[in-house]
Write a structure and sequence with these properties.
0% of the residues lie in helices and 59% in strands. By secondary structure, the protein is an all-beta fold.
Length: 121
């Protein structure tokens, strides 16, 4: 069984910083891309940042310059460093991984259960 477990969410005041972590575990042969999504109240889930297996990154326009995604392949972990947080960043943040399970040929997407980030004004 594959699991993605997020951590690092919490309450922070505007202008503050948080770092989210997501660790993958289970019968995993290879992890391709990893990403962070978020869903704010009353809004659809949106892509925040993604990082490919070779380290290429992309970001939503709303977070570019403030958030940094990175990964540690040895730990099967992806991070999201968030600075200059705004109330608009308040959302449940979900980890996503495109990975290949042991015994499979192609990757599939897996989701974590989410971690809540609340930014107060």
């Amino acid at each position: 069984q594959v699991q993605l477990v997020e951590s690092g969410g919490g309450l922070v005041q505007a202008g503050g910083s948080l770092r989210l972590s997501c660790a993958a575990s289970g019968s995993i042969f290879r992890i391709n891309a990893m990403a962070w999504y978020r869903q704010a109240p009353g809004k659809q889930r949106e892509l925040v940042a993604a990082v490919s297996s070779d380290g290429n990154t992309n970001y939503a326009d709303s977070v570019k310059g403030r958030f940094t995604i990175s990964r540690d392949n040895a730990k099967k972990t992806v991070y999201l460093q968030m600075i200059s947080l705004k109330p608009e960043d308040t959302a449940v943040y979900y980890c996503n991984a495109d990975l290949v399970r042991t015994g499979y040929y192609y990757g599939m997407h897996y989701w974590g259960k989410g971690t809540l980030v609340t930014v107060s004004s």
